[in-house]
Design a protein that fits this description.
By secondary structure, the chain is an alpha+beta fold. It contains two helices and six strands; from the N terminus they run αββββββα. It has a single domain, classed as SH3 type barrels.
């Protein structure tokens, strides 16, 4: 995925959507985050708990973002504002 897509996703993150989740890097690392700051080329992730080396902040180039996992239930209307379409799965 292109870095511009991740820049747009994080830059347009809806205010009512919790700023937390799990960022998956292209190295296969999964980084839980409880907040973030955006930059031109990098995203700065804030961890609620330190990693095994004691780090609470991680700065990752957008080029190294592979996926973002959301840990909260997010209403489809909020996701549509980020460019998604369709409806929830019918059960």
């Amino acid at each position: 995925m292109e870095a511009t897509a991740w820049i747009r996703l994080f830059g347009e993150w809806p205010g009512e959507m919790p700023r937390r989740g799990i960022l998956v890097t292209t190295f296969g690392e999964q980084v839980p985050f409880s907040g973030f700051l955006t930059g031109e080329s990098f995203i700065c992730l804030e961890r609620q708990n330190p990693d095994s080396l004691g780090a609470r902040t991680l700065i990752v180039p957008y080029d190294n973002v592979a996926a973002v996992k959301l840990v909260d239930v997010v209403k489809p209307a909020i996701l549509r504002r980020l460019g998604f379409s369709g409806g929830p799965a019918k059960t």
